[in-house]
Amino acid sequence: MDSSTKTGTGYYPLGTGLSDNGYYLFMGTGGNSNTSMTLKFDNPIESEKYIKITYAKPTSTNNGSTNRSAGNENTMSIDGEKIDVQSNCEFDKWYTTTVKLSNQTSQIDFAFGKWSSIAISKIEITDTADMLEITSDTTEQYITSENQTVQYTAKVYKSITTEKRQIRDCFKGSEDTTANITYSVNGYNGVSIDNNGSLSITPSATAGTVTVSAECGGIKKFINLVLKSLGNANKVEFYSDEVVYRGTSKYMAITIADGVVITACDTKWEIVDNTEGVSISNDGTLTVSDSAADGIVKIKATLTVSSVQTSEVIDELEVTVRTNNSEKLSV
Predict the structure, then answer these.
(1) Which range scores top for mean pLDDT: 223-227, 308-312, 315-319?
(2) What values do phi and psi take at 288, rounded to 5?
């Protein structure tokens, strides 16, 4: 039928919502009971082929005016792959589902709950189809003095459904765990990827764009990773006790470039306005001697100019000195 076909009785699409696709095969069930239907091919379709079926979930009626689409079960099954038309498809929109056949297949099975239907405009058999997807946990990475890894995951699906007017996939079926997927990169120096999709970045890599690809069955997908050089640190933070007693406390400097913690640079440690009995060594060890008095001292950490740092970066921290150890709080 087409959108203008009206029988006056029975069960058929309501209105002209499917008019842009011409004629189609309409299947459905009224309000009396659930129904199963089977659409058989003239000849069996061999395994490793792809079935593409274009269809809609129409708003339907039994009298030409009343909406009789109840939202009950509406599924189709092809070679064990079940497509949930009711849950995944909107009314009166056209979709194409592509299914890869693992076995020789001779039919499509449909299951309809009460007041459910489907309109099929086209069924195609093809030798190839794009069922591959590649993802990663990041799109950019800083190059550091340590080896780093970025994980890529490629999957091949047994079914993929797209809406007629959209390029992106609407929903995906089960994963084809038997698919043979190979990973590669674009010959980028200092970067490699293994068979499990784990990308390694060495310190010898340079800033630029790495193209990572996954391939299966002649289909190849690409995804880019932007590598960035850290350059100068623009921030330093340090931490340890903010209340100290007689003895020693160790302070650690954290070197940051554009919000990313990088390898430590040369750091100069100082006590601002020298305080008697309190000193700090080159490695950030603060010493409070017996001659120190209670009070506040200010510690200063300076990233010094070096081969990797072209300007000084400073942070300061005020620390409370208490010389009476009995004031320590027990927890």
Answers:
(1) 223-227
(2) -110, 115
